[in-house]
Amino acid sequence: MDQIEFILAQLQKSKFRSAFILKQKEKLYIEEKGIDIIEKHAYDFIGARIAPSNILNDGKQTPMKGHPVFIAQHATATCCRGCIEKWHKIKKGKELSKEEKDYIVSVIMTWIKKNR
Prior knowledge:
With 116 residues, the chain is mostly helical. It has helices spanning 3-11, 15-18, 24-33, 35-50, 68-75, 81-88, 98-115. Helix 4 crosses helix 7 and helix 5 (68-75) packs across helix 7 (98-115). The longest helix has 18 residues, at 98-115.
């Protein structure tokens, strides 16, 4: 089992994380836009909301609904730097590297692909 599969299995044991699902509206959105556009959105959201070293509203920057990536972020504990540090062991207080952003987007996209 690779690292992403392992962490997704661990997250499924969390009552809070496992409660997030893609509803029909989000599934349709993924179908209409295509998985490549959804991945681009994930990179955009991570770059703007998660990657900076200091985030003023950390813990509140990711909406709970409105886009499949937002839902996936909560399901995968990639919604804020505190959750990322706790679950993915990527330290807060420093800008995310390209490799860290790639990893986070891979976690999000793996979850989306499994749940669409």
